[in-house]
Every structure is written in C-alpha cells, then in structure tokens.
Amino acid sequence: MVAWSVETFLAAGAEAVVLVVAADQIEMARQALPPSPRLRIVAGGETRTASVRAALTAIEAVEVEAVMIHDAARPLITGNHIESLLTALEIADGALLAEPVSDTLKRADPEGLIVGTTDRENLWRAQTPQAFGREKLLAAYASWPEGAAATDDAAIVEQAGGRVVLVPGDPILMKITHAEDWLMIERLAGEARITRVGQGFDAHRFGPGDRVWLCGVEIQHSASLIGHSDADAGLHALTDAILGAIGEGDIGDHFPPTDPQWQGAASDKFLIHAMEIVRARGGRLINIDVTLICEQPKIKPHRQAMRERLAGLLDLPLDRVSVKATTTEGMGFTGRGEGLAAQALATIETPV
Ligand code: MG
Questions:
Q1: What share of the chain is helix, strand, coil (3-state, %, to 5)?
Q2: Disulfide engineering: 55 pairs with which of 18, 154, 172, 191, CB 3.0-4.6 Å?
Q3: How many Å lie between the centroid of ligand 1 and the Cα of residue 240?
C-alpha cells in the first residue's frame, strides 16, 4: 500500500520522498520499497505532528520550494493530484485536496439520539496530499506548540496565518481504515484478486528401511516409504494441491519420475518449486490443510514439528498451516499397513 504512494511521488519527479514509519518497521519498509537515492525512510514520533517534524528534519539539506505531506493510507494518488496542488501553490501558502460533504450531517448524543442537523453547506472533507510552501510550513511548525495535536497540516499552517486553498479532491483518495476498505481499493486500482482452492492426493508403499519422511520431517520407523524421491506423501499431496489451485498440472509434469536427477530427492524442492510458480504469478498462499492417513507411524507426536517445517518452507504463520492424521480403522491398504496416503488442500489468492 505504501509503495503505491512512494512510487507515484518518485514518478512525479519529487526531489526527495521521506517515508515516516514506526522505528521497528524501517527494515520492512526498506525491503518492500523500490531502492531509490531519492527515498529516505525515517522513524516517526509519538504523534502525527512529531512524525511530520521528523520528516521535515530529514529533508533539511534538500533544496526545494514545495513540500507535500501525504497519508499513505490513501494509496490511489496520481500524478494529476500532485500537479493540481503545485498549480494551486502558485497563489497560496498551502493547498489541499478536498471533497464537498454530500451526506447529511447529524449531531447525536452519546446514546445515539439525534440532537441536531448540521448545515453541510461550505463543509469539505480534507484529503491528502496537502502541499505547502516549504518556508511557510517550517515557520508554522516552529510556532506550533510542542505536543499539541493537529489532525492535518493545513490546520497548523492556518493557525500560523497562512492562506490555504482547497483543490477539488477525488473519491479514489479514500482512506483505508478497515480491512474491507482494502478490497475496495484493490478493485479501484484494477487489482482485483480471486481465491482459488486446489487439492492433492498421494500414496506410497512401505518397504524395508528404518525411517520415513512426512511433511518434510524425518521419523524413525520400522519401515521406509518406497518412491522415486524421498516418497514424502505429505509434501507430494501438498505440492499437487498448490499446483492444482493454479491449474499447473501435477507434480509428475514438473518433476518426471523418469528423470534421474529426482532419484532420492528431498521433496521440499517440489514444494518450493510450486511456490515459485505461485509467486511469479503474483499469487499468495493463504492456508494449507494436510491429512495423513495411516495406522503407523503415529503422527501426533510429530504433528507440531511438521506444521513448523511447512510454515517455514511456505513462509506462512503457523495458524494457517494444518496437519491432521487419521487411520482407516484397519480397512484398506493403509489399514493393512501396506502403505500410507496423504490428502491436502491449499488456498491461493491470485490476480484475476
Ligand atoms: Mg508421491
């Protein structure tokens, strides 16, 4: 979300863009944003005003006449918005994008009982960016009492006697406040996404040996699983589920069993490959659910290790990684202990 605004300002030719984030988010922001010699990332303060002061300090040495302050929670800013503010600044100390209030405004008591209707004429909803002559802005901030709250920068410049004008805003500059707002923004940005589900199934036969691999975890056992690779049915089912969600065939298409290079291969390679295809398509894994079907080995003692291993391989939080186990009550090939099976589901979000 933040990257959209940063990229727009850089593309519009800003001499410097200062991103103000919480101190513990600086590294995350650095990784998420395109590297640019014009971009600085600084830690904000306790209040909005303190954060703006930190940004102004960061550009002390940059020679510019105009400064814009923008709330990155309004990500759909365009070069046209920036341009119209710069034009307005030619005749004013400050300019801000604003939309006329179109809804009727009610005043209510704390119980929700209406006590009045406010005349909405001449009322505007302030948006961002807000643009200011740099010297006016610095002087206004210098005279603003330390610790006093302000909900926007125009108020600070107004207080200092500055002439601030309204520039027609834009409904697409809506502010993201709730999770649902993000869905609307994605649609407006033409970045609608869909959720896909894929399922996978795999089975392997037991043979001589003393360990099995399941969901990327090695388990001591009185038999091993027979297969071309390490025969990790859990990872194979999961890889097929991921490939299935994005319509990319199955594990055998990507890693033919006839290819000697996969002989005895660790199956996490297959899973990582499937995730690379997902990411290359702009997709994102949401959650996975694996069911292992066998009488032996007992899965429960290893379940947590399997979840942690999968969470690590897939870069998912633990609560989006499920590993379950069941027997078939002695019936069928798993019941007779001839082999074991695994089923998996994967949910993936991708661009439409
Ligand atoms: Mg298999």
A1: 35, 30, 35
A2: 18
A3: 9
Alpha-carbon distance of 47 to 50, in angstroms, equals 5
What is the distance in A from the centroid of ligand 1 to the CA of 279?
23
Q: Strands 284-293 and 321-326, how do they pair?
A: parallel
CA 205–ligand 1 middle distance (angstroms):
10
The per-residue pLDDT for range 209-243, each reduced to its tens digit, is: 999 999 999 999 999 999 988 999 999 999 999 99
**Confidence grade of residue 248 (pLDDT, cut at 50, 70, 90):** very high
CA of 204 relative to ligand 1 center, distance in Å = 6
Question: Which letter, b or e, does each residue of 87-126 get, where b requires 16 or more Cβ atoms within 10 Å of its Cβ?
Answer: ebbeebbbbbbbbeeeeeeeeeeeeeeeeeeeeeeeeeeb
CA of 324 to the centre of ligand 1 (A): 18
Measured in angstroms, how far is the CA atom of residue 351 from the centroid of ligand 1? 30
Tokens 């207080």, located at residue? 159
CA–centroid distance, residue 196 to ligand 1 (Å): 23
Residue 236 CA to ligand 1 center (angstroms) comes to 5
Sheet holding 164-168, edge to edge: 66-69, 124-133, 94-100, 164-168
How far, in Å, CA of 240 to CA of 263, rounded? Answer: 19
Q: What is the DSSP letter of 144?
A: S
Distance CA 215, CA 32 (A): 30
CA quadruple 128, 79, 76, 2: dihedral, nearest 10: -80
Going from the Cα of 225 to the center of ligand 1, the distance in angstroms, rounded, reads 10
What amino acid occupies position 104? T
Q: How far is the CA of 294 from the centre of ligand 1 (A)?
A: 15
pLDDT (0 to 100) of residue 260: 85
Residue whose entry in the numeric block shows the structure tokens 């005895």 = 264
Quote the ligand 1 centre to 92 CA distance (angstroms): 70
